[in-house]
Amino acid sequence: MEIHNILINTQNFPPEAGGIQNYMYELAKALHNIGHHVSVICDAPTIAGQQEFDTSQAFVIKRISGPKLIRRYRKARWIAKHLNTHDTLLICDSWKSMELLSPEKFRSLCCVCIAHGMEFPTQTSEKKKNRITKTLSQADFIFANSQFTAQRLRPYTASALRTHILHPGVTPPPAPSANELTNVSNLCMAHSPILLTVGRLEARKGQDKVIEILPKLLKDHPNLLYMVAGTGPLQESLSARTQELGITNNVKFCGRVSDGERSALLQKADIFTMPCRAVGDSVEGFGIVYIEAAMMGVASLAGRIGGAGDAVLDGRTGVLCDGDSEHDIYLGIKKMLADSAALKAMGQQAQQRAQAELQWEQIAQKLLTLCTKDD
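The chain above was modelled as a monomer; its predicted structure follows.
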């Protein structure tokens, strides 16, 4: 199969923010950059800036508006019409985007479904399980973002042969401005070493566990600083806990940061520290933020559960730990800080891997290769 036209069908797309939104945008851009004609059909957002965003892109974007159910039917009709007039590779951002598409429309093209992890619950009703299974049976290929997500897929797919691992890509980090570098330097002052977490302030990211072990780490590293970037529901409780523990001078809450500020923070960080854990069905499907840290040459401490084991290679690009265990998190960080040469080597390996294997254009080409390898 020779691919010229690609249609991306997604419910999640900028200018709305989010991990899947960014994934689908970067994939569309990368497929265009390697020479394919890309069209995107997506929902019309309720936030400002959509028209300006759409007109600035090099590929075609079609927006569908209306109440959710009506919007889904409108999209399905538009896609059916498009497929009748174009030989197209169809890429759907999830099984939900495929559900209303008729199987007979897929006879002359390849249909791909991206799997992120959270959309496949470990326990659900028989009715919903049947919906997911029926929908996925229409896909020629299912691309899971990690081994963990592929495992979650198994109860919903009759054949594992159609499932492949396709890690998300990463974009080269922007260089921070002089002001951003100065602001971060002022926050860090004379502190060393520096731990950094960038992510939503919620239980599964593990910022609370890191704060709990800081008093023990400070015994060996009294000038240690923990930088916490992001906002979320745990913000007030995390701040209050640092006061209770008497460690306010060793924890800096940065709030939401720009891309340049994130680069500046990563330049200062010794360890990217996000010991993720499962909270109910909420779990890290991959963790692109670990790869963003890797691009800056920073090794990571990550939780062993979920897809983080695909993002952080234990002992090579970072260290995996039990994100539910404060003791295990403490031992992981202590071990990493104890050997500066080994820590630097892990950061270098992380950077080499990110640059050699996980750039978006490399991911886009791998997707196309997997779709055509059996031709």
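The domain at 5-169+359-372 is CATH 3.40.50.2000 (Rossmann fold).
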